[in-house]
Amino acid sequence: MRMLDERTRRRSIGAAMSAVGLPLLGAVGAVAVWWLAVGILDVSSFIVPAPPEVAEAFDRMGGTLVHHFFVTLGETLQGYVIAVVLGLLLGLAIASSRVLERILYPNLLALNAIPKPAVAPLLVIWMGFGPGPKVVMVTLICFFPIVLAAATGLATTPADQVELARSLDASWWQAFRKVRLPAAMPQIFIGLKTAMPMAVIGAVIGELVGANEGLGAVINQASAGSDMALAFAAIVLLGVMAIVLFYALAGLERLLLPWVRQTTG
């Protein structure tokens, strides 16, 4: 029994080290390739700065970068939460009514086909240079994958589970809460995870078009001042933001849906 517990403990430690160590190894490898490519190709720092120059920019402008990081993070999370709420509600409506599906899907496809950078200047004109246009841009970019995932998941409940709920004379709400929603959650989380990195992109698009704060504004100002190290430092922070948010969502999925990993290969 002790040997079994010891093996289980070692496997847990090994899995944790693998989950943390391998991504760190990948990050170190990416920085090494970047540094090596800049050195071998003799790329000017005016075009692509080397990692030490970016590190120097972090040291020089660390406080400013942290402030703008949290501005972008706030816009990203606000727009994402709005997209999740609206997307899940609309996905439920589409999955529950064939008529609504036929009415709404063409409009959703048309909305998704609009190039979002083309909308950003209009949002600035309508809403000004505050956080509003960035939040709306995040919502627009994240909305469609969440709606699609929710509608698909809720519309593809296994037939045997639906029949079981009917045989037990479950109400619509009971069948939805106990059968349809749990069955749809893996698909819904696929849409949520797909939309999360896109949320960061949406916030940056809004900031690049018109903003005085946020990492997108830092990139604009640094590029105009030929401070490429600072621009790359802001880009690195955006990458870190997307990674942290994605894995936080993946952790929430594991916490809420532990049975998914146990029932899939």
If you had to describe this structure to a student in words, what would you say it looks like?
With 265 residues, the chain is mostly helical. It has 10 helices and no strands. Helix 2 (51-96) packs across helix 8. It is 86% helix and 0% strand. The model has no long low-confidence stretch (mean pLDDT 86). The protein has 2 domains: 1-43; 44-263, MetI-like (MetI-like fold). The radius of gyration is 23 Å and the shape is flat.
CATH fold description of the largest domain: MetI-like fold
H/I helix tally? 10
Order of H and E elements: HHHHHHHHHH
Number of β-strand runs: 0
Mean pLDDT: 86
CATH class of the largest domain: Mainly Alpha
Oligomerization state of this entry? single chain
The CATH architecture classification of the largest domain is Orthogonal Bundle
Query: In one word, what is the shape?
Result: flat
Query: What level of helicity do the residues show?
Result: over 70%
Question: For the terminal residues, how far apart are their CA atoms?
Answer: 27 Å
Largest sheet: none
Could you say how many structural domains there are in total? 2
CATH superfamily of the largest domain: MetI-like
Radius of gyration: 23 Å
Q: What is the SS-derived class?
A: mainly alpha
Beta fraction: under 5%
Low-confidence stretches: none
Give the key terms.
265 residues; mainly alpha; MetI-like fold; 2 domains; 0% strand
Summarize the helices and strands and which ones pair or pack.
Elements: H1 2-40, H2 51-96, H3 98-113, H4 116-127, H5 132-155, H6 159-167, H7 172-209, H8 215-224, H9 228-256, H10 258-263
Helix pairs in contact: 2-3, 2-5, 2-7, 2-8, 2-9, 4-5, 4-7, 5-7, 6-7, 7-8, 7-9, 8-9
